[in-house]
Amino acid sequence: MKAQQALYIDGVWCPAEGRDTIDVVNPVDEQVIGQVPAGNAEDVDHAVRAARAALPAWAATPPAERAARLAALRDVLVARKDEIAGTITAELGSPLAFSQAVHMGTPIAVAGSYAELAATYAFEEKVGNSTVYHEPIGVVGAITPWNYPLHQIVAKVAPALAAGCTVVLKPAEDTPLTAQAFAQAVHEAGVPAGVFNLVTGLGPVAGQALAGHPDVDLVSFTGSTAVGSRIAATAGAAVKKVALELGGKSANVILPSADLARAVNVGVANVMSNSGQTCSAWTRMLVHTAQYDAAVELAARAAAKYGDRIGPVVNARQRDRVRGYIEKGLAEGARLVAGGVEPPSERGYFISPTVFADVTPEMTVAQEEIFGPVLSILRYEDEEDALHIANGTVYGLAGAVWAGDETEAVAFARRMETGQVDINGGRFNPLAPFGGYKQSGVGRELGVHGLTEYLQTKSLQF
Ligand code: NAD
């Protein structure tokens, strides 16, 4: 897709006030593939004013009509699936088949789910002698990361629009072309001017201006815990609602009764998918001491099969950061059984699929989010030990439990301090609430829980 030298505000592509631009780089060959405007605080203000002006009419639009626009948006995404998948591959580096199946498949399903929810959700209910109205919160400032560039946008914009909110989006610097393609799709879907606005730009400039804008009612942020906590502090000072989807360091707990080979192979695939740049990836594999050596061997073999087929990480900074973690793992005494710091290819931001054994719970590679294709395998003595290790980080976004018997796995999962757990390889469900315990975030996305984040209640008593 050709980059737009403009921002999408009030239904038109308009030049940015700021003269600065952002280079978009293909992480496979390090070539610049386009440039987009780096919007500044004035651009953000322009977009927020457009969103504010469009709010009364959109909030008053019957839910069935909002649902129709969302269904049209889903249809445009379906029609442009291959083209947008190509854009995602060009700026994120993910293999094309993965972009088509996951980077496009998920947001199409999510957009469809909100078309249905907008049409069926009870925006008005009776509670005793009261009528309770579920009203839109207002103008939403949405700030998104690059790792699932379209999904992260749709997971915010679709429920916000379904709720009757208007939106200003500040997407990640690395993947602005996907955001531009989304803005085109919104336009084609006939969403009225000002309901959705796009300002590309730098986090500390455009992102910060959006998070701190006095006329934004809700800031919905997905990204790192460090930036999220700063945004929450700014919003808190202004008594503004925030929704935060932050980092993770999820545990994949393999109980002794599980099918070990399946649990390990699916676990490795989960971590390597999207080059490890998945907030909910199960980057800590917990194995009983009696099965530990067998699991390490299986994991090393599984990881070695991937080679550079997983694609690069998004940029040079991320590559260096991941390499730094691998070096730290070695320095702290973890045993490398696959991959390492040597790149599998000279060009591009590639990292070899890497597996560490003999990782102990306090090591950096067991505690911090690496956001690259790096798996740590930890040993546990018994179930209590496994639970203690699984819950022993500041994060609580996701996880997995494997056992011979589902009841046994569920009993363990219920004791995990985390927002999502896959039982014996359970599939991702775009309708299930997604979000974190502890420092993994505040609030939930997807399904009906994601919709209610954008609603506030008004009760009338009779
Ligand atoms: P990041 O926090 O650096 O950036 C995320 C977004 O915030 C970008 O749009 C960026 O421009 C913007 N930003 C940066 N500084 C800002 C500031 N001072 N004020 C306002 N906005 C600012 O994160 P990243 O490196 O882009 O993404 C990786 C992180 O995102 C990982 O920690 C990952 O776990 C997390 N993540 C979480 C989820 C989830 O659902 N929980 C999903 C995807 C990614």
Describe the protein in words.
The chain is of the alpha/beta class. 42% of the residues lie in helices and 21% in strands. The chain is built from 15 helices and 20 strands. The chain has a 7-stranded mixed beta sheet, with helices on both faces. Strands 9-8-7-10-11-19 form a 6-stranded mixed beta sheet, with helices on both faces. The longest helix has 25 residues, at 96-120. It is globular, with a radius of gyration of 22 Å. The site of nicotinamide-adenine-dinucleotide (NAD) has 30 residues, from helix 7 and helix 8. Nicotinamide-adenine-dinucleotide (NAD) is lined by residues 143-147, 170-173, 203-204, 207-208, 211, 222-224, 227, 230-231, 245-248, 279, 369, 371, 397, 436, 441.
Strand order of the largest sheet: 14-15-16-13-12-17-18
Number of domains: 2
Shape: globular
- Structural class call reads alpha/beta
What proportion of the residues is helical, as a percent range? Answer: 40-55%
Task: Identify the CATH architecture of the largest domain.
Answer: 3-Layer(aba) Sandwich
What small molecules are bound in this structure?
Answer: nicotinamide-adenine-dinucleotide
| Radius of gyration over all CA atoms, rounded | 22 Å
Provide the CATH topology of the largest domain: Aldehyde Dehydrogenase, Chain A, domain 1
